Amino acid sequence: MTSPASVNRQITLASRPVGAPTATHFALAERPAPVPGEGEVLLRNLYLSLDPYMRGRMSDAESYAEPMAVGDVMVGGTVARVVSSRHPDWQAGDLVLAYGGWQDYALSDGRGLSRLDPGMAHPSLALGVLGMPGFTAYMGLLDIGQPQPGETVVVAAASGAVESVVGQIARLKGCRVVGIAGGNEKCGYVVDELGFDACADHRAEDFPQQLEAACRQGIDVYFESVGGAVFDAVLPLLNTKARVPLCGLIAQYNDTGLPPGPDRLGLLMRTLLTKRIRMQGFIIFDDYGARFGEFLAAMGEWVRQGKIKYREDVVEGLENAPQAFIGMLEGRNFGKLVVRIADD
Amino acid sequence: MTSPASVNRQITLASRPVGAPTATHFALAERPAPVPGEGEVLLRNLYLSLDPYMRGRMSDAESYAEPMAVGDVMVGGTVARVVSSRHPDWQAGDLVLAYGGWQDYALSDGRGLSRLDPGMAHPSLALGVLGMPGFTAYMGLLDIGQPQPGETVVVAAASGAVESVVGQIARLKGCRVVGIAGGNEKCGYVVDELGFDACADHRAEDFPQQLEAACRQGIDVYFESVGGAVFDAVLPLLNTKARVPLCGLIAQYNDTGLPPGPDRLGLLMRTLLTKRIRMQGFIIFDDYGARFGEFLAAMGEWVRQGKIKYREDVVEGLENAPQAFIGMLEGRNFGKLVVRIADD
């Protein structure tokens, strides 16, 4: 699995996808492993996180982050071991959370590196429940969603890395929690393993009816990461004073144009007005970076106590990252998708 | 102008409009003036407020308030004088803010009555800058919009009762304020009299270009009461972290169906997501009723100091209320629309 230290395998953006990405939009390059200059650190990536936001970076449409250039190494969060350091704050052997990208080795000037417990039993969790996805769930649900005991919270993509945590936190806060997931296996997991009260299958023909039946008191908080037909079923069920944290729209990321009419933009606004709904987009580290410590303390405790469960979908080998990513956009992963790049 | 005390003229909902209301949707009835029972108060309505929300009450579509029934007296806020009272808290001669409706006389059991200074020089202001419209402006802008000094605040229907106050408060808070209004006269008023920094004419062919030219730094707060083509021009100019208090959608109230495609519902959500925008509907007394005193103290002082200006469009005679209301939905009023029902 590991490469010789002299070679750095990199997966780059070969061309910009229009619609769904395919293998042809990625390229595997082998380059000499980089050498750290003064003030730099050489990182060996161990685990790479695959996340839906990366689809946005592959396009040049305006979004919350600069797009990648064609030829760039694909971006992504990694857990890495410091191989060598010419930076006073870091030493060989340190375990770090980095933004090391889809490659074996990365250089860093220290910015954006976070120290992890070097003996951490399960370092990939720093990419999942104890990292960006867990943090996204925590702040989006609690700060924007503000769930109150007894309220109904609905979570799309409910078995996902972010969403599975959203639902479990909502349960801890005394809410009735309804998941939306694709297929019996994921729905069963959400209810039986994660303890959600119900789950509607968005692949079923009667999905809107399933959702309505599971939300007899309407929906007070809808944590949105999907959009499209899933949101269409949610919209008429939203209660007065509902809150809709907007975390992602994975069902729309591969769209190449607007869908046919009628134009429901005004309908959405009318619903927000007459039901006094708050809908708000957020980007976790930009909006809440200063509260990461608060999150980590709370979530670390919940995970230790077994109150928050998680599931990882670990793909072996950097070379398999493109197929795993393509599958994730189609909902084929099951749990937090992580690529094991190297044994530690 | 006044009727004999024995007759109560009432304007009722004759039929539900589909699309724009016309005179045929209203009826004028003459009924005996009501007689207060034990615990009741007889009110003589002096001024009636006409407001866009009333259009919603005429339909039976789901909205934030129960629709009126056909045959009901049209609802509305009034300034009234107590004629006689069998309620311990009220006496003949008291000046009150009431929800007395489109009629000469109303009965009240005291609920929803607010006492006004009986010698108030300008009692109709209790229906405007010192009443529901001013309160709507104050809370919507400050609580949801959260304008910061130096930010750009855009207000649609800028010469309107609510919106003219929004812009002036935003100026007091150190913002750059851009209005949107229909025609040269209203645009001139907004800039020259109210002190807005600029105003774009939504009736001009180059309206989107005018708005963009007036918002070189983008839009940080958009106070929405119009919707439709005005919002279409605003949407691409919204900045990252913009706030959109949703107070009304007057351009859409007469719509009989959804406009043709493409469907931009997903586009709006994508914009809220990628720009991390907060869009939130509100209904002033339901959401903020407890803060009316805070508003009245602040606004009363601003009005006394001449820092907030207002303009009334006073229509003489209850019988002219329907035409005035129809004209308001077409933007033909200029200033807070009030009907003088009777001399005091």
Automatic annotation (TrEMBL), chains A, B:
The keyword Cell inner membrane does not apply. It comes from the Bacteria. InterPro entries: ADH-like_C, ADH_N_2, ER, GroES-like_sf, MDR_fam, NAD(P)-bd_dom_sf. Residues 19-339 form the Enoyl reductase (ER) domain. Pfam families: ADH_N_2 (PF16884), ADH_zinc_N (PF00107). Keywords: Oxidoreductase. PANTHER family: PROSTAGLANDIN REDUCTASE (PTHR43205), PROSTAGLANDIN REDUCTASE 1 (PTHR43205:SF7). This is NADP-dependent oxidoreductase. The lineage of its organism: Bacteria, Pseudomonadati, Pseudomonadota, Gammaproteobacteria, Lysobacterales.
